[in-house]
Amino acid sequence: MTSVFDREDILFQVVVNHEEQYSIWPDYKAVPEGWRTVGKSGMKKECLAYIEEVWTDMRPLSLRQKMAEQA
Predict the structure, then answer these.
(1) Sign of the dihedral defined by the CA atoms of residues 42, 38, 14, 57, in that order
(2) Which N-terminal residues, if any, form the signal peptide (predicted)?
(3) Average pLDDT, consecutive stretches of 10 residues, N- to C-terminus, the chain (71 residues)
(4) CA-based nearest residue to 36, from 50, 18, 11, 16
(5) By the 8 A CB rule, do 10 and 4 touch?
(6) With the CA atoms of 28, 26, 38 and 55 taken in that order, what torsion angle do they form, in degrees rounded to the nearest 10?
(7) Among 56, 48, 70, which Cα is nearest to 20's?
(8) What is the CATH number of the domain that holds 41?
(9) How high is the pLDDT of residue 59?
């Protein structure tokens, strides 16, 4: 069975969690607890391109904050 995340023919939406980590989620499914939509949806390639553009620091928010406190 093929995973829904391997499909190129369905709509996805971009989601983000409290640590500002991004992912894609099928548009037809409820967003899992702990994640929220960012207002971007489209085909898989479009959503992944958006994430690549906006998620410039892969470190979780809590780590970035801790490092800033120690600086």
Answers:
(1) positive
(2) none
(3) 91 98 98 98 98 95 92 79
(4) 16
(5) yes
(6) 180
(7) 56
(8) 3.90.820.10
(9) 92
- Note down the domain range covering 54: 4-70
User: Taking a C-beta distance cutoff of 8 angstroms, is the pair 62, 17 a contact?
Assistant: no
Q: Are 5 and 24 in contact (CB under 8 A)?
A: yes
Q: CA-CA distance, 39 to 59, in Å (whole number)?
A: 22
pTM across the whole model? 0.88
The reported pLDDT for the residue numbered 1 is 78
Domain count for the chain, please give it: 1
